[in-house]
Amino acid sequence: MLWLLLIAALLMQSCSANKPVKIALSKGKGSESYAKYATWLQANNPNVECVDLYFIDRDQALKVLNECSGLLLTGGPDVEPSRYGKTEDSSRCEIDMKRDMLEFDIIRKAIELKLPILGVCRGLQILNVAYGGSLIVDIPSDYGKNVVHRCDNPEKCFHELTITKGSELNKISGLTFGSVNTNHHQGISKIAEVFISTARTKDSLVEAIEWKNPENKPFLFAVQWHPERMDRESNLSKPIANLFIEKAIEYKKEIAKK
After folding, report:
1. What span, in angstroms and rounded, lies between the C-alpha atoms of 26 and 99?
2. What is the pLDDT, as a whole number, of residue 3?
3. Which of 52, 57, 120, 225 has the fewest Cβ atoms within 10 angstroms?
C-alpha cells in the first residue's frame, strides 16, 4: 500500500512540474509592442503561459493573480501625476486611469502573495510611485537633453549605462557597463526609500532598481529599458527573462508544497 502512495505522489509531482508556469502581464495585448512581452518570455522558456490582466475586470484580475507564479508590469503610458503630488502636470501626460487603478491594486496583491515581480519601463516607474517615490514629468523639458531617452524611431534609439558592482543586474549580466534601447519621456525623480538604483545613464537617470533590503521580501527587479525588444542573446535581455522565470518556477514549486 505504501508503495502505491509513493507512486501516486511522484505522479502528482510530475504532473505539477509539467504544467505551464503562469505569468500575469499587467497589459500584454493590443499592439505588436505589447505582444513582444509574451514572445520574449516564451522564447526563453516555452513552458511559460502568459495571462493578460488588462482586458478583464479588476476583481477578476485579482482572482487570476492568485493562480499565477509571477507578475510582469509592462511598458505603456504615463502614471497619473497626482499619484506623486504633481496633479498640475496631468495635461503634459498620456494617461490611462483604468490601467493606473489596476496596476496599483495588482502590485499590492502581488506583494501580499509574495509573487516575483518584474517591471519594464512604465513598470519601473509605477513600482517607484507605489512605494512613495516620484517621477520626472517630462525629461527633455524638466531634466535635460544631455542623453536622448526617446527618438522618433525607437528601434534605433540606444544609450549607455553604468551598472552597480555586486547588484543583481551585475551578477546576471556580468557587466558594469552596457548599451540598452530607450523609449520614454519620464523617469524616476525621487527614488522610493525601499529601493536602490543599480544602473544609471550618463545624465544620472535611474535605469534599474532592486530592493534596498531584500530580506523577507518577494523577488522584485525593474528596468527602464525594454529587454523584450532587444537582441534575445543580449546580456541585458536574456538573463533578465531567465532570472524572472527561474523565480516564478521556484514560487510555483513552493506553493505546490503547501
Report:
1. 8
2. 55
3. 57
